[in-house]
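Exercise 3.2. Students should predict the tertiary structure of the chain below and write it as structure tokens, then compare their answer with the key that follows.

Predict this chain's 3D structure.
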Amino acid sequence: MADPSRPDGLVLFGRISGLFGVQGWVKVFSYARPREAIIGYSPWLVKIGGDWREIVVEEGRAQGKGVVARLAGYADRDQASALVGAEIAIRLAKLPPLKKGEYYWAQLVGLEVVNLAGEKFGKVDYLFDTGANDVMVVRNGRERLLPATKQVIREVDLEAGVIRVDWDAEF
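Answer key:
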């Protein structure tokens, strides 16, 4: 169930969302928790023009509710503008190991969601955090928002590419 646009072994960790100042700094929308933890995973793999390029993070910090970073080779605003909108990935091997039953969001994206009655809901398009819990957005002609909780998610089978959920198909 690998994403054909992303090489195996990479986990999407954020995206470059804008420019910050005139010295090549960029705003980063980070999927990490806490958000500024993404800075510690240098180098980043950044998708530029369809290709993944390794870029060293020279410095970065939390800025308001987001993160800003200065990347090697991007010394001014004009150079950095080429990065806006680019996805950021980290090599899975660089991430801390998870406990049994824990998954990185990127591992769940693209998996088929099936309820306990065998009804197919579609595939996980993305996840987001509400503050109270994470939510899976599942699409298959219609969009379903399912709480990503232990009460709802009963099994994740990465090998088979399936998430089994305790959720009524009519809800």
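Discussion points: The chain has a mean pLDDT of 90. Residues 105-165 form a domain with the SH3 type barrels. fold (CATH 2.30.30.240).
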